[in-house]
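Hi,

I'm pasting everything inline rather than attaching a file, because the server keeps stripping attachments. The sequence lines come first, and each chain or strand is labelled.
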Amino acid sequence: MGQKGSFCVLLKEGPFGGYRIRITAINHCVGGASRGLKAKIPHSYVPVMGKRAHGESWRTLVMKITEILRQRALTVSFEFFPPKTEQEMAQLFETLREVKKLDPGYISVTYAPGGETKEKTIEIVRRAKSEIGLESMAHLTCVGHSREELRKILDELKISGIDNVIALRGDPLKGQTKFTPHPEGFKYASELTAFISATYPFCIAVAGYPEGHIESPDKETDWNNLFHKVTAGADFIITQLFFANRDFFTFESAMRKKGVSVPIIPGIMPITNYNQIMRFTQMCGAKIPEDVARELGQIRDDQEAVQDYGVAYATRQCKQLIAHHVPGIHFYTLNKSKATRRVIENLRSQG
Ligand SMILES: Cc1cc2nc3c(=O)[nH]c(=O)nc-3n(C[C@H](O)[C@H](O)[C@H](O)COP(=O)(O)OP(=O)(O)OC[C@H]3O[C@@H](n4cnc5c(N)ncnc54)[C@H](O)[C@@H]3O)c2cc1C
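And the predicted assembly:
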Protein backbone atom coordinates (compact mmCIF):
# COMPACT_ATOMS: atom_id res chain seq x y z
CA MET A 1 0.00 0.00 0.00
CA GLY A 2 2.87 2.45 -0.44
CA GLN A 3 6.49 2.77 -1.30
CA LYS A 4 9.49 3.54 0.84
CA GLY A 5 9.38 7.22 1.64
CA SER A 6 5.62 7.56 1.49
CA PHE A 7 2.67 7.28 3.83
CA CYS A 8 -0.21 4.92 3.59
CA VAL A 9 -3.55 6.50 4.49
CA LEU A 10 -6.21 4.11 5.70
CA LEU A 11 -9.77 5.28 5.97
CA LYS A 12 -12.04 2.92 7.82
CA GLU A 13 -15.70 3.42 8.56
CA GLY A 14 -16.42 3.01 12.27
CA PRO A 15 -19.32 0.80 13.41
CA PHE A 16 -21.26 3.78 14.68
CA GLY A 17 -20.52 5.85 11.58
CA GLY A 18 -17.68 8.26 10.96
CA TYR A 19 -14.16 7.38 9.95
CA ARG A 20 -11.00 6.27 11.59
CA ILE A 21 -7.89 7.56 9.94
CA ARG A 22 -4.46 6.05 10.33
CA ILE A 23 -1.31 7.00 8.55
CA THR A 24 1.42 4.42 8.54
CA ALA A 25 4.98 5.55 8.03
CA ILE A 26 6.84 3.45 5.49
CA ASN A 27 10.07 5.10 6.57
CA HIS A 28 10.99 7.98 8.83
CA CYS A 29 10.70 10.85 6.37
CA VAL A 30 8.66 13.12 8.67
CA GLY A 31 9.10 16.68 7.43
CA GLY A 32 8.31 16.47 3.73
CA ALA A 33 5.67 13.80 4.12
CA SER A 34 3.84 15.57 6.91
CA ARG A 35 3.86 18.77 4.85
CA GLY A 36 2.21 16.81 2.07
CA LEU A 37 -0.39 15.47 4.50
CA LYS A 38 -1.42 18.85 5.84
CA ALA A 39 -3.30 19.55 2.66
CA LYS A 40 -5.43 16.44 3.16
CA ILE A 41 -6.24 16.44 6.84
CA PRO A 42 -8.03 18.80 9.21
CA HIS A 43 -5.85 21.27 11.08
CA SER A 44 -6.58 19.65 14.42
CA TYR A 45 -4.91 16.36 13.49
CA VAL A 46 -1.44 16.04 14.95
CA PRO A 47 1.02 13.38 13.80
CA VAL A 48 2.52 11.41 16.68
CA MET A 49 5.36 8.91 16.52
CA GLY A 50 4.82 5.69 18.38
CA LYS A 51 5.66 2.02 18.48
CA ARG A 52 3.39 -0.90 17.98
CA ALA A 53 3.45 -3.56 20.67
CA HIS A 54 5.66 -5.75 18.47
CA GLY A 55 8.19 -2.98 17.95
CA GLU A 56 7.38 -1.86 14.39
CA SER A 57 7.49 1.91 14.21
CA TRP A 58 4.29 3.59 13.19
CA ARG A 59 2.71 6.94 13.00
CA THR A 60 -0.88 7.85 13.76
CA LEU A 61 -2.86 10.92 13.10
CA VAL A 62 -4.53 11.98 16.29
CA MET A 63 -7.23 14.47 16.81
CA LYS A 64 -9.02 16.43 19.42
CA ILE A 65 -12.12 14.73 20.79
CA THR A 66 -14.30 17.55 19.51
CA GLU A 67 -13.10 16.58 16.02
CA ILE A 68 -14.02 12.94 16.67
CA LEU A 69 -17.45 14.06 17.87
CA ARG A 70 -17.91 16.06 14.69
CA GLN A 71 -16.91 13.14 12.47
CA ARG A 72 -18.92 10.34 14.06
CA ALA A 73 -22.66 10.06 14.26
CA LEU A 74 -22.21 8.62 17.77
CA THR A 75 -18.94 8.59 19.70
CA VAL A 76 -18.67 5.82 22.25
CA SER A 77 -15.98 6.23 24.91
CA PHE A 78 -14.79 4.24 27.92
CA GLU A 79 -13.42 5.33 31.25
CA PHE A 80 -10.75 3.39 33.16
CA PHE A 81 -8.87 3.93 36.38
CA PRO A 82 -5.17 3.27 37.06
CA PRO A 83 -4.87 -0.10 38.81
CA LYS A 84 -2.71 -0.70 41.86
CA THR A 85 -0.56 -3.71 40.92
CA GLU A 86 1.62 -4.59 37.93
CA GLN A 87 -0.55 -7.63 37.30
CA GLU A 88 -3.70 -5.50 37.19
CA MET A 89 -1.91 -3.06 34.91
CA ALA A 90 -1.11 -5.89 32.46
CA GLN A 91 -4.75 -6.99 32.69
CA LEU A 92 -5.90 -3.44 31.95
CA PHE A 93 -3.83 -3.39 28.76
CA GLU A 94 -5.41 -6.69 27.73
CA THR A 95 -8.81 -5.07 28.31
CA LEU A 96 -7.76 -2.03 26.27
CA ARG A 97 -6.77 -4.29 23.37
CA GLU A 98 -10.21 -5.92 23.55
CA VAL A 99 -11.88 -2.53 23.80
CA LYS A 100 -10.03 -1.36 20.69
CA LYS A 101 -12.02 -3.93 18.69
CA LEU A 102 -15.18 -2.02 19.64
CA ASP A 103 -13.73 1.04 17.87
CA PRO A 104 -14.36 3.62 20.61
CA GLY A 105 -13.85 7.28 19.71
CA TYR A 106 -11.54 7.58 22.73
CA ILE A 107 -10.84 6.25 26.20
CA SER A 108 -10.20 8.25 29.35
CA VAL A 109 -8.14 7.49 32.45
CA THR A 110 -8.98 8.86 35.88
CA TYR A 111 -6.67 10.71 38.26
CA ALA A 112 -6.64 10.08 42.00
CA PRO A 113 -6.94 13.16 44.22
CA GLY A 114 -3.55 14.38 45.43
CA GLY A 115 -1.68 12.92 42.47
CA GLU A 116 -1.51 9.38 43.85
CA THR A 117 -1.90 7.96 40.34
CA LYS A 118 -0.10 10.71 38.42
CA GLU A 119 2.57 8.49 36.84
CA LYS A 120 0.14 5.67 36.09
CA THR A 121 -2.52 7.95 34.59
CA ILE A 122 0.09 9.45 32.26
CA GLU A 123 1.59 6.05 31.43
CA ILE A 124 -1.79 4.54 30.55
CA VAL A 125 -2.97 7.38 28.30
CA ARG A 126 0.44 7.52 26.60
CA ARG A 127 0.67 3.76 25.99
CA ALA A 128 -3.02 3.37 25.08
CA LYS A 129 -2.39 5.88 22.35
CA SER A 130 1.06 4.96 21.15
CA GLU A 131 0.92 1.16 21.57
CA ILE A 132 -2.74 0.41 20.96
CA GLY A 133 -3.78 3.38 18.85
CA LEU A 134 -6.62 4.47 21.14
CA GLU A 135 -7.23 8.20 21.29
CA SER A 136 -6.90 8.98 25.00
CA MET A 137 -7.97 11.65 27.44
CA ALA A 138 -6.25 12.21 30.79
CA HIS A 139 -8.26 13.24 33.84
CA LEU A 140 -6.61 15.91 35.98
CA THR A 141 -7.75 17.19 39.37
CA CYS A 142 -6.75 20.28 41.37
CA VAL A 143 -6.61 18.42 44.70
CA GLY A 144 -3.31 18.90 46.49
CA HIS A 145 -1.55 20.53 43.52
CA SER A 146 -0.08 23.99 43.14
CA ARG A 147 -0.35 25.71 39.75
CA GLU A 148 3.31 24.93 39.13
CA GLU A 149 2.72 21.21 39.74
CA LEU A 150 -0.30 21.25 37.46
CA ARG A 151 1.76 22.99 34.80
CA LYS A 152 4.41 20.24 35.00
CA ILE A 153 1.77 17.52 34.64
CA LEU A 154 0.22 19.28 31.64
CA ASP A 155 3.68 19.68 30.08
CA GLU A 156 4.30 15.98 30.54
CA LEU A 157 0.95 15.10 28.96
CA LYS A 158 1.71 17.32 26.00
CA ILE A 159 5.15 15.77 25.53
CA SER A 160 3.52 12.33 25.72
CA GLY A 161 1.39 13.22 22.69
CA ILE A 162 -1.87 13.64 24.61
CA ASP A 163 -4.31 16.19 23.18
CA ASN A 164 -7.32 15.79 25.43
CA VAL A 165 -7.74 16.54 29.13
CA ILE A 166 -10.75 16.61 31.45
CA ALA A 167 -10.31 19.42 33.98
CA LEU A 168 -11.71 18.57 37.41
CA ARG A 169 -11.61 19.94 40.90
CA GLY A 170 -11.62 16.47 42.46
CA ASP A 171 -13.16 15.14 45.64
CA PRO A 172 -11.84 15.87 49.15
CA LEU A 173 -8.82 13.79 50.14
CA LYS A 174 -9.41 10.60 52.14
CA GLY A 175 -10.33 11.44 55.72
CA GLN A 176 -11.44 14.99 54.81
CA THR A 177 -15.06 15.97 54.47
CA LYS A 178 -14.49 19.25 52.65
CA PHE A 179 -12.37 20.12 49.66
CA THR A 180 -9.46 22.34 50.69
CA PRO A 181 -7.66 24.03 47.82
CA HIS A 182 -3.86 24.03 47.69
CA PRO A 183 -2.69 27.51 48.84
CA GLU A 184 -1.09 28.05 45.43
CA GLY A 185 -3.61 26.05 43.47
CA PHE A 186 -7.20 26.30 42.27
CA LYS A 187 -10.49 26.26 44.16
CA TYR A 188 -12.78 25.27 41.26
CA ALA A 189 -12.50 23.29 38.05
CA SER A 190 -13.41 26.48 36.16
CA GLU A 191 -10.09 27.99 37.29
CA LEU A 192 -8.14 24.94 36.08
CA THR A 193 -10.09 25.06 32.81
CA ALA A 194 -9.22 28.73 32.30
CA PHE A 195 -5.57 28.00 33.14
CA ILE A 196 -5.33 25.14 30.63
CA SER A 197 -7.25 27.02 27.98
CA ALA A 198 -4.98 30.06 28.24
CA THR A 199 -1.75 28.09 28.22
CA TYR A 200 -2.18 24.85 26.26
CA PRO A 201 -3.76 23.65 23.02
CA PHE A 202 -5.58 20.76 24.75
CA CYS A 203 -9.15 19.93 23.92
CA ILE A 204 -10.78 20.36 27.36
CA ALA A 205 -13.70 18.44 28.84
CA VAL A 206 -15.43 19.27 32.12
CA ALA A 207 -17.82 17.36 34.38
CA GLY A 208 -21.57 18.05 34.42
CA TYR A 209 -24.16 16.82 36.91
CA PRO A 210 -27.69 16.08 35.64
CA GLU A 211 -28.87 15.74 39.24
CA GLY A 212 -26.72 18.63 40.50
CA HIS A 213 -23.35 18.26 42.23
CA ILE A 214 -23.59 16.69 45.67
CA GLU A 215 -22.16 19.80 47.43
CA SER A 216 -24.34 22.26 45.57
CA PRO A 217 -27.35 23.80 47.37
CA ASP A 218 -29.50 23.14 44.28
CA LYS A 219 -29.25 22.10 40.64
CA GLU A 220 -29.68 25.60 39.27
CA THR A 221 -26.66 26.90 41.22
CA ASP A 222 -24.55 23.99 40.06
CA TRP A 223 -25.63 24.36 36.44
CA ASN A 224 -24.77 28.07 36.56
CA ASN A 225 -21.31 27.06 37.77
CA LEU A 226 -21.09 24.61 34.87
CA PHE A 227 -21.95 27.46 32.52
CA HIS A 228 -18.88 29.28 33.91
CA LYS A 229 -16.69 26.22 33.28
CA VAL A 230 -17.75 26.33 29.64
CA THR A 231 -17.10 30.05 29.30
CA ALA A 232 -13.70 29.42 30.95
CA GLY A 233 -12.76 27.33 27.91
CA ALA A 234 -14.37 23.86 28.07
CA ASP A 235 -14.91 22.24 24.68
CA PHE A 236 -17.37 19.59 25.82
CA ILE A 237 -19.13 18.19 28.89
CA ILE A 238 -19.24 14.62 30.19
CA THR A 239 -21.90 13.94 32.77
CA GLN A 240 -21.85 12.08 36.03
CA LEU A 241 -23.58 8.70 35.81
CA PHE A 242 -27.37 8.81 36.05
CA PHE A 243 -30.17 6.26 35.78
CA ALA A 244 -33.20 8.34 34.84
CA ASN A 245 -32.86 9.76 31.35
CA ARG A 246 -35.34 12.50 32.16
CA ASP A 247 -32.72 13.98 34.52
CA PHE A 248 -30.32 14.18 31.59
CA PHE A 249 -32.92 15.69 29.26
CA THR A 250 -33.88 18.37 31.81
CA PHE A 251 -30.22 19.16 32.47
CA GLU A 252 -29.31 19.35 28.79
CA SER A 253 -32.27 21.57 28.01
CA ALA A 254 -31.42 23.90 30.94
CA MET A 255 -27.80 24.20 29.74
CA ARG A 256 -28.92 24.98 26.19
CA LYS A 257 -31.25 27.68 27.55
CA LYS A 258 -28.25 29.21 29.32
CA GLY A 259 -26.51 29.42 25.95
CA VAL A 260 -24.18 26.43 26.30
CA SER A 261 -23.66 24.99 22.83
CA VAL A 262 -20.75 22.56 23.38
CA PRO A 263 -21.45 18.80 23.10
CA ILE A 264 -22.93 17.22 26.24
CA ILE A 265 -22.05 13.54 26.58
CA PRO A 266 -24.13 11.38 28.94
CA GLY A 267 -22.16 9.13 31.32
CA ILE A 268 -23.58 5.62 31.72
CA MET A 269 -22.55 2.91 34.15
CA PRO A 270 -24.01 -0.54 33.53
CA ILE A 271 -24.87 -1.96 36.97
CA THR A 272 -22.85 -5.11 37.68
CA ASN A 273 -22.95 -5.41 41.45
CA TYR A 274 -25.73 -4.44 43.87
CA ASN A 275 -23.63 -3.31 46.85
CA GLN A 276 -21.15 -1.48 44.66
CA ILE A 277 -23.77 0.57 42.83
CA MET A 278 -25.50 1.46 46.11
CA ARG A 279 -22.14 2.69 47.47
CA PHE A 280 -21.26 4.66 44.31
CA THR A 281 -24.59 6.39 43.97
CA GLN A 282 -24.45 7.42 47.61
CA MET A 283 -20.95 8.83 47.11
CA CYS A 284 -21.68 10.81 43.95
CA GLY A 285 -25.27 11.80 44.67
CA ALA A 286 -26.86 9.95 41.72
CA LYS A 287 -30.28 8.47 42.44
CA ILE A 288 -31.46 4.99 41.55
CA PRO A 289 -35.14 5.11 40.53
CA GLU A 290 -37.40 3.39 43.08
CA ASP A 291 -38.58 0.62 40.75
CA VAL A 292 -34.97 -0.16 39.76
CA ALA A 293 -33.84 -0.26 43.40
CA ARG A 294 -36.76 -2.57 44.24
CA GLU A 295 -36.15 -4.95 41.33
CA LEU A 296 -32.43 -5.03 41.99
CA GLY A 297 -33.07 -5.66 45.69
CA GLN A 298 -34.97 -8.81 44.79
CA ILE A 299 -32.01 -10.28 42.90
CA ARG A 300 -29.15 -8.67 44.83
CA ASP A 301 -27.46 -11.97 45.79
CA ASP A 302 -27.59 -13.44 42.29
CA GLN A 303 -24.57 -11.86 40.64
CA GLU A 304 -25.41 -13.10 37.17
CA ALA A 305 -29.00 -11.86 37.38
CA VAL A 306 -27.79 -8.42 38.57
CA GLN A 307 -25.40 -8.21 35.62
CA ASP A 308 -28.12 -9.22 33.13
CA TYR A 309 -30.44 -6.64 34.67
CA GLY A 310 -27.71 -3.97 34.50
CA VAL A 311 -26.95 -4.70 30.84
CA ALA A 312 -30.63 -4.67 29.87
CA TYR A 313 -31.23 -1.43 31.79
CA ALA A 314 -28.18 0.35 30.33
CA THR A 315 -29.17 -0.84 26.83
CA ARG A 316 -32.64 0.71 27.26
CA GLN A 317 -31.11 3.92 28.60
CA CYS A 318 -28.65 4.15 25.68
CA LYS A 319 -31.32 3.41 23.07
CA GLN A 320 -33.42 6.29 24.34
CA LEU A 321 -30.40 8.61 24.50
CA ILE A 322 -29.38 7.68 20.94
CA ALA A 323 -32.94 8.33 19.74
CA HIS A 324 -32.54 11.75 21.39
CA HIS A 325 -29.43 12.25 19.17
CA VAL A 326 -26.80 12.55 21.88
CA PRO A 327 -23.36 13.06 20.31
CA GLY A 328 -21.78 10.27 22.33
CA ILE A 329 -22.04 7.94 25.30
CA HIS A 330 -19.30 7.72 27.91
CA PHE A 331 -19.23 4.35 29.69
CA TYR A 332 -17.93 4.04 33.22
CA THR A 333 -16.34 0.61 32.94
CA LEU A 334 -14.64 0.17 36.33
CA ASN A 335 -11.88 -1.50 34.26
CA LYS A 336 -14.18 -4.36 33.27
CA SER A 337 -15.30 -4.19 29.69
CA LYS A 338 -17.68 -7.18 29.63
CA ALA A 339 -20.92 -5.40 30.61
CA THR A 340 -20.19 -2.42 28.36
CA ARG A 341 -19.35 -4.77 25.48
CA ARG A 342 -22.69 -6.53 25.95
CA VAL A 343 -24.54 -3.19 25.93
CA ILE A 344 -22.81 -2.18 22.69
CA GLU A 345 -23.51 -5.56 21.10
CA ASN A 346 -27.18 -5.19 22.06
CA LEU A 347 -27.32 -1.71 20.54
CA ARG A 348 -25.73 -2.94 17.32
CA SER A 349 -27.94 -6.01 17.01
CA GLN A 350 -31.08 -4.03 17.80
CA GLY A 351 -30.11 -1.41 15.18
C1 LIG B 1 -16.91 12.77 33.93
C2 LIG B 1 -16.33 12.83 35.32
C3 LIG B 1 -15.02 12.44 35.52
C4 LIG B 1 -14.45 12.49 36.81
N1 LIG B 1 -13.16 12.07 36.97
C5 LIG B 1 -12.58 12.16 38.20
C6 LIG B 1 -11.21 11.79 38.40
O1 LIG B 1 -10.53 11.35 37.48
N2 LIG B 1 -10.70 11.92 39.64
C7 LIG B 1 -11.44 12.40 40.69
O2 LIG B 1 -10.90 12.51 41.78
N3 LIG B 1 -12.73 12.75 40.53
C8 LIG B 1 -13.31 12.65 39.32
N4 LIG B 1 -14.62 13.02 39.15
C9 LIG B 1 -15.39 13.47 40.32
C10 LIG B 1 -15.21 14.98 40.59
O3 LIG B 1 -13.88 15.27 40.90
C11 LIG B 1 -16.11 15.35 41.76
O4 LIG B 1 -17.46 15.25 41.39
C12 LIG B 1 -15.79 16.68 42.44
O5 LIG B 1 -16.49 16.71 43.67
C13 LIG B 1 -16.20 17.91 41.65
O6 LIG B 1 -15.38 18.11 40.59
P1 LIG B 1 -15.75 19.20 39.45
O7 LIG B 1 -14.66 19.21 38.50
O8 LIG B 1 -17.12 18.99 38.96
O9 LIG B 1 -15.70 20.53 40.36
P2 LIG B 1 -16.28 22.00 40.19
O10 LIG B 1 -16.82 22.24 38.84
O11 LIG B 1 -15.24 22.93 40.70
O12 LIG B 1 -17.52 22.00 41.18
C14 LIG B 1 -17.38 21.60 42.54
C15 LIG B 1 -18.47 22.25 43.38
O13 LIG B 1 -18.22 23.66 43.45
C16 LIG B 1 -19.32 24.41 42.94
N5 LIG B 1 -18.75 25.56 42.25
C17 LIG B 1 -18.09 25.58 41.06
N6 LIG B 1 -17.70 26.83 40.78
C18 LIG B 1 -18.10 27.62 41.80
C19 LIG B 1 -17.98 29.02 42.09
N7 LIG B 1 -17.36 29.85 41.27
N8 LIG B 1 -18.51 29.48 43.25
C20 LIG B 1 -19.16 28.65 44.10
N9 LIG B 1 -19.31 27.32 43.89
C21 LIG B 1 -18.78 26.82 42.75
C22 LIG B 1 -20.05 23.43 42.00
O14 LIG B 1 -21.42 23.78 41.84
C23 LIG B 1 -19.85 22.12 42.75
O15 LIG B 1 -20.80 22.00 43.78
C24 LIG B 1 -15.24 12.96 37.90
C25 LIG B 1 -16.57 13.33 37.69
C26 LIG B 1 -17.12 13.26 36.42
C27 LIG B 1 -18.55 13.65 36.20
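Residues 108 and 137 are 4 Å apart (CA to CA).

If the labels don't parse on your end, tell me and I'll reformat.
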